[in-house]
Amino acid sequence: MTVVVRFYGALREIISEKLELDIPSSGVPLIDLFSEILRKYPALGEYIRVNERGVEVRGVTILVNGRHVVFLGGDKAVIRSGDVIDVLPPLHGG
Amino acid sequence: MPYAFTGKWLRVDLSTGSIRVEEVAEEVYREYLGGRGLVAYILFRELKPRVDPLSPNNKLVFATSIITGVPVPGVNRIVVGAKSPLTGTYCESEAGGYFAPELKYTGFDVVIIEGKSEKPVYLWIKDGRAELREAKHLWGKLTRDATDEIRRELGEPLARVACIGPAGEKLVKFANIVFDYRYAAGRGGLGAVMGFKMLKAVVVRATKRSVQFYDEKKLVELARWFYENWRKQPGAVSRSTYGTAELVTPLNKDGTLPTLNFRGGSFELADEISGEALNKTILVNRSTCFACAIRCKPDVKAKHPYETDPAYGGPEYETIAAFGSLCGVSDLNAIAYANQICNAHGVDTISAGVVVAFAIELFERGIISERDTDGLNLRFGDSEAVLRLLNMIVKREGFGDILAEGVKRASEIIGRGAEKYAIHVKGREAPMHEPRGKVGVGLAYALSPIGADHLQSPHDPSFERVAEHLVALGITRPVKRLDLDYNKIRAVYYGMLWWSLLDCLGICKFTFAPHSAGVYTPNHLVEVVNAATGWNTSLWTLLKAGERALNLARAFNAREGFSSKDDTLPERFFEELEFGARRGQRIARGEFTKALRLFYEIAGWDSEGRPTPAKLYELGLDYAVREIYGDKS
Questions:
Q1: What is the ipTM metric for this complex?
Q2: Is the alpha carbon torsion for B494, B321, B431, B573 positive or negative?
């Protein structure tokens, strides 16, 4: 049972383009998934933190299957096998 | 002579042909710095209220700043201003490249163009001397042809040329000024002002540097620090690799890539117009601006049937989105060709793309038909129709003549409910940033003195991550992206003062934070100013100058009759996004109105959005108090 987490733009400078992570068949809450990613890639802590308030994004955006997590229950969203998670860098003007 | 600036302004009256040099006191530079500050100072003091932008009484100002020409990355932008023929507001626009340092080195900080010539002319400035030269043979020429011809006849291949194309001559309301084929200033129609005045070009060349900087060694040290550190800044390498086109993919996934005339925020064919796609298909080189290491500018060579000339540069993010997702077009070759048409004829790519998308939506909704469009069948995604319509606009042919008035005026001419689909603020077409996903950007669109503009304040995601840069500005608490509370309003306000300061100094926002590639901090900027001028200034004093310029621009608009009713957004942004990752998201009108009111109070503006007498006095703008409120205030 796996999920794919993809990173874009500036984030690729500190983490790979794509991670494939094993998860339990019952799924995993978003907060647990990012705790695990941050354990392996602490430099990502510049943009995402997990604390008692939940997953705290600092300029980045998290999508699950193309939808914003805010529309899917936020921190409580349960990630299931086959889901694709996109983590977008801070988006400024051009 | 002071350090860093010449203290000399060149005043050119095209009606009489007179050219004179004015000496300006250091005090003026201390208070206004340059760029936006000086443009606002000159326009407010010298233009009579309600002057017709396309009349001899409008003035066109080219302004450098006190630090233009220092060998520091990003300090290279020329600021051009006038009353806008597109909006009727105060207008200024900035362009990168090499023109601004060259102008400063000729011995003039500012050029003011007045009156109207009876025949086409261009202004030639070299090493402290200036003359008007006949330009009849250049009238009607595309920007590259005119630029090449001017350099050839002057025997000056290294001259820097700011010129208009045929669109400026035909008074297209969003005509721009094109520098050295590819750098453009002129959102708001400054090219039309130049065209009305029959001024084809301003040409500059300096064979020696006519200004000295106070501490050149320190400036070199500051530049070296940038070269050694910029690659460490998150996002800087991506910006250098893909240019601003890097934004296409993440904005699309984020649901904030303006698509189909702002109906939605994601474009299903975005991968075909992304920065990655551009690098793989049409990119041939990357160019840069004076003293900058980032090299974010693309040179492209598009393929048949849309072959392009790399000299015109290539489409950057705003252009890719405006002619791509906004028009439903996924052919990068066609987008590059549209970019070339705009640079060659001299029109703003953002406004042009929005005007075309507006027309397509009207057509698809049945509000207009082939009877209105001279037989053109307009559909989203039809690149050939987009290019044909663009050609009609830049030449003011047929239906293009109406669209050349800009989206607001065109919608009023068309009627039949077309106004609902005209996406603008104060008559200026919205840039390619979806405020329903970045509400602070929406606030800045509404409050901007020049109409919708994406470079008035840092974008909301900047405020979620409180970095050293923001702390220096007093923004110490992270603010969530979609919040519109007092914390966000305060952050946008402080950001607006900082970015107003950068426009006063003619600085690129990609080199000074807060931005993805913003390497220098605000305190670095103070060091640059002090090293250039020998002053002992502070961040507080500089930010006050940014605030002074912003308030003067707002005061200019107040004097023209603009008020709180104009500080708003198009109706569409209060409606739900129809598709994309943020489908269903909208800006709550009540919350937005409340935020505007609080912003006014924080900024020291009254309920009509005018700077109060107290605020103007505090900024030393007593002459503006008299103009706006009379002698009894």
A1: 0.81
A2: negative
